[in-house]
Structures are given as C-alpha cells and as structure tokens.
Amino acid sequence: MVDRRSVARPYGVVIGGELHLGVEPVFENGVLTRLRPHTGVPEPFVLSAPFVNAHSHFEYRGLMGRVEQRDFFGWIRRLVQLKGEQTEDEVRCDTWIAARENRASGIALVGEHFDRPHSPAAVREFGLMGRLFAEVITFLEHETPQEKLETVSRKAAEATRASGLPAYVNPHALYTVDEPSLRWIARQGTPLSLHLAESREEADLFRSGTGPFAELMTSVGFPLPPTGITPVEFAAALGLLRANAQLVHCCEVSESDIAQIAASGASVAHCPRSNEALSCPIAPIRRMLRSGITVGLGLDSAASSGPVDMFAEMSAAMRLSHEKGEPISPEECWQMATEGGARSLGMDSWVLGEGWSGPLLEIHVPDALGVEDLIERGSPDKVVWRDPTDL
C-alpha cells in the first residue's frame, strides 16, 4: 500500500466548537494525523466536522407552511388532520426531499422519528447515518396497545433492513402512549427518543390534570396520567430516564428535573425554532449544560421549524438563550450542532482532531473572526462536502 499524505489549506478549523485560525490539517491515507501552522496560502473556507440533526421528522416536509396554528395543542390537532389527508406517494416524496436537503446542508447524522415507513429508504439513499425511532402512539388508535406494539416492532425491523441503521420501538410522548406500553418499552432497555416537557399544556396535564390534553383524554376515555408531578418525574418513575435515552425539547423543566436528567445520564435534543413557533417556553439550556447534560440541536420537522438550516437553528438557540437571560455561547451552539448531537445518538467520536477519518465540511464564509461570525453569515448553500481521501 502506498502512503498518501495530503494537506488541506482552510484559513481555519472548527474543533470542539472553537474556530482555530492559521492551522492546516495533515492527512495520511484519509486519516487526520496532525494540525500544524499554515505552510501555504490558505483558501477562503473553514473546515468542520459535519452537522448532526439530533431530532427530525422527514415525513412532515410537505406540511411546511401549512399549519397556521401557533399554540401547541392547536398545532398538533391541525398536524394530525393534515397528516390524514396525505397520500403514501406524497409522504414518500416528502421524506426523500427532506433527506436530500439534510445531506446537502451539511448534515451527516440524524435522529429520525417516523410513523409511516418511508424515511428508512430515504436515509440510505442519501448516505445519512444515525438512529431511527419507530414511533408508538396508542391514543385514538384502531389497534389495541398490544397490537400497536407488535406492528411497530415489525416496522422497526423493516426499517433496519431498509436503512442499514439501528431502528428502535420508541414512545412518541407520555400523553400519547398508555402507561403499560410505556413500561413495556422501558423494560426493553433499548435507546429511545422521547418528546418530553415540551409545552405548558403538557405540564398542566401532569401538574393538575387540567388543560386541553386532559379534556381530550377524558372525552374519549383515555386514562389520565398521575398528577402532582412533572413529566420528567413520571418518565423517571416509568424507567425511561437512562443513559441511552434522548429527551426531546425539555422546555418546561424545574431545577429538580434538570438534576434528575443529569443524574440519569440522559441527553437532550434542543429544537429552538420549533419551540418558538409553537409558543413553548424557552428551554433552560444554559443550566442543562452547566449540569453536565449532553445537548444536541435538532431541526424537528419542517412543519414547525421551517427550512433545513443548521445555521438558522444555531442562531435561534443563541438568540433565545439571551432572551431568557441565560446566554449560551456561539461555540457551545456549534458544539451542540456537532459533537453534542452525535453523543446524544450514541456516537462519542465526533470531534475533528487526530484520528478523524470521516467526511468534512468546507464552510465558505471568508474572513470569519470567530464561530459567531460563521453562524450569522453561514447558510446551507455555503457548505461543500469534502472527502479527506480526495484532498
């Protein structure tokens, strides 16, 4: 075998969320062996590890801009209505568009939730990696809970075959799955990604058994969950808080909730654009990071977040944290969009450094002085994929 040494000449490299200027990476046979000071004229781009979309719903791509409601409960009701009007061909096309947009915008890993069976093939077609979560919902379903678990178990197995990625039977949320099914899923011990503590309406359901969720459950005879607790406390009691659990949103959480999440080793997927669009509380990300919780950034669905754009997601995360009075730094946002998201999906080696052999992103934002500059001036059309074996 002939050794191949190559050098990339960006004007900077993003490592662990920080922009290092004046360095160039050296690769041997496609593996990064060292970073050294520039030995030639740099080119007008920076290098970064690819982005990670920690939480996604490709199948809702065709509903972008079609759900006008901006209250959480109203938005969900309208989404379910529109979902029922879609054809299978439309959904299949939507998942492929979303997968292509994710890849084109610099995303390599996804935590993809699916109800209908088209995302797995789309993920494979566009070379995305990550984890797939086959959602269980037993609320207002024609199947019994046991039948639904069996159906989703088959769907997860089929998704693994179609995508080549691990796919898991996964609870959608505490208010859409009956308690025995939640306990059954918890006993499996497999990775999960649970929508949790997203809205005030969800908090009211558990705090006092009131609000629109409680009213709807009561009207159809679906058992109400226990009250006088938080959603996080209920998830913990069920056995759903653990190191391989990703908790999606966690907007309405207390200091005690944060401590419990941190102690469990669970991670959080933060979706700021979606949360803002649905009038959710601003998630206390600063306090989560301070508590040692791994946080990744998720683009959620185009129906709530809008176009696939990790730069816009990072910018929203920064802006909302300042509005809350608990600012997070640009470097922390970039880390959440890369390493943090990867760790939340079970991958611990997503830092661009010695030993890196995966694909790279060229981000063509010239003369950036820091990561904040990259975020505010960056966009998906300024991202180019680079294979280190082809340098």
What are the main properties of this structure?
391 residues; alpha/beta; Urease, subunit C, domain 1; TIM Barrel; 2 domains; 4-stranded parallel sheet; 15 helices; globular
Low-confidence stretches: none
Query: Based on DSSP secondary structure assignment, what is the total number of beta strands?
Result: 16
Strand content: 15-25%
Distance between the termini: 18 Å
CATH topology of the largest domain: TIM Barrel
Number of discrete domains? 2
Helix residue percentage: 25-40%
Description:
There is one protein chain. This protein is of the alpha/beta class and 391 residues long. The chain folds into two domains: 5-49 and 351-390, Roll (Urease, subunit C, domain 1); 51-344, TIM Barrel (Alpha-Beta Barrel). It is 40% helix and 21% strand. It has helices spanning 72-85, 88-104, 119-125, 145-163, 179-188, 200-208, 212-220, 231-238, 255-264, 272-277, 285-290, 302-305, 310-324, 330-344, 371-377, and strands at 5-7, 10-15, 18-21, 23-28, 31-37, 43-48, 51-56, 107-114, 129-136, 167-171, 192-196, 245-249, 267-270, 295-297, 360-363, 383-386. The strands form four sheets. It has a five-stranded mixed sheet with strand order 3-2-6-15-16. A four-stranded parallel sheet has the order 7-8-9-10. The protein has a four-stranded parallel sheet with strand order 11-12-13-14. Strand 9 (129-136), helix 4 (145-163) and strand 10 form a beta-alpha-beta unit. The longest helix is centred in the middle third of the chain and has 19 residues, at 145-163. It is globular. The relative contact order is 0.16.
